[in-house]
Amino acid sequence: MVLPHHQSPYVTPHILHRHYAQSYDNEFSSKLIGRDLEYFSQAGFDMDRIQLKRNASAAQLYEDAVRNEGAIISSSGALINFSGKKTGRSPKDKRIVYEDTSKDDIWWGSVNIKMDEHTFEINRERAIDYLNTRDNVYVFDGFAGWDPKYRIKVRVICARAYHALFMNNMLIRPTEEELANFGEPDFIIYNAGQFPANRFTKGMSSTTSVEINFKRMEMVILGTEYAGEMKKGVFSVMHYLQPVKFGQLSLHSSANVGMDKGDVTLFFGLSGTGKTTLSADPNRLLIGDDEHVWSDTGVFNIEGGCYAKCINLSKEKEPEIYNAIRFGSILENVVYNPASRIPDYDDVSITENTRCAYPIEYIPNAKIPCLVERQPSNIIMLTCDAFGVLPPVSKLSPEQASYHFLAGYTSKTPGTEDGVLEPIPTFSTCYSAPFIVLHPGRYAEMLASRMSKHNVPCWLINTGWTGGKFGTGKRCPLKVTRRIVDAVHSGELLNAEFETFGVFGLQIPTSIEGVPRELLNPRLAWADKEAFEREVRKLGGMFQRAFKLYEDDVQESVRLAGPKLS
After folding, report:
1. Of 410, 292, 306, nearest to 358 (Cα)?
2. pLDDT value of position 193
3. What residues act catalytically?
4. What span, in angstroms and rounded, lies between the C-alpha atoms of 173 and 362?
5. Which residues cross the membrane (predicted)?
6. Do residues 207 and 193 make contact, with C-beta atoms less than 8 angstroms apart?
């Protein structure tokens, strides 16, 4: 851009300030789209009316979000923005298009609800029509998957600067050269979340619709501004493409690597089990906190950022996350002090699902690039057992690993607000039920095959209650769980002596230095032995009922690896 003759490149006169940066943004953004103009025209975008902003900088997106969306800059420099009525995912409104190329691979049912191709076309056109009414349309081109052999090119098209910055943080950001040579995307997200779906359209159950078409490799979002829908949409696509197209295993897991030995550990676990906390280890580098692929050559992160929960966040408990909340990060639905702009992480008046999205390089001990060309040395499956009967650590046989991977057990603690007095079991297959695309058995078979091929031990670690169920027992201390994880990493546990644990048939160590004997065997920790036997049999029965969904599709050896009540 040519500067006015009277203007120094270092001083912007006040009278020019309002339009100076914006005129540069307009010229720069439209030029950058260049050869892709034809694509947007063919897709139905009114190029004479809308202004496309492609891969805008965080600073530009901050300005637009503050100017147009009511966003706030927090005291630490993060952008505070709000997702409106929807503050979490809408799983009942998620649809997969039923079409020839993918219909035989999809696990159809309550997680993957069918949508016909015509309805998808109606919603896609509705989304583009809405985007055409906006003055600014944001485009972000990035990658999913750190390994170039298996990555896909993702294009996000949206109307909120907040959504563009969110995906700038969550996808892998291209270099200038990669962006110039980006070419055709492999997957496109049309996010018109401010505009509702027509609930009278065939197959619509509400004004919200989140739908994926694997033939077109497109996703359409209507009626929800919750940014997490885009993140999980990309994961769903990778959960389909990696096994089907690339023959690699996509996983809902965290992963880290030892600084000294270079040993990789995968952590599976549902919300509240300690997956994020335990994978953040000062002696190890973080590969990623949520989504990975176990490939033929190693392990790589799918994402370029982290999407951390903020409820009750403190610098003392989680310093890495706390310090990552700075310029470039997005705080989502977080209450703040209107005078000081200091976030209040204890205030859940908007939602308990407060979040922060930040680039992974904001974590000091992140492994950049987020891939390790080495096979895993350990797999840890995490559960939080509020019934207080599962041991804090068990060594699983390959069949037991498949069984517990398919079961995906944890439990929620009783909630006083609805009068629930008992722990609530949660079974989320493959530790990722809401995002499963193929039949769970397919992922389980791939996991078992890779574990067998590379001789990878698997450990079930319970971060829940001991000495009694929730209300009478106590939660296993974090320092004890960390000591157990350290024993896994050092190889100490592999050489331990084991005994068989009752109903579940688990192999539990008889001793670990620094861990009390009564903690290792839950039966010893319970004063009331009869009550313990009742609870362990009750939980075993819950496992059996939950597993009926998969038992017809697994080998008999896996079926027999679960709890036995007779």
Report:
1. 306
2. 97
3. 89, 232, 252, 271, 275-276, 290, 355
4. 14
5. none
6. no
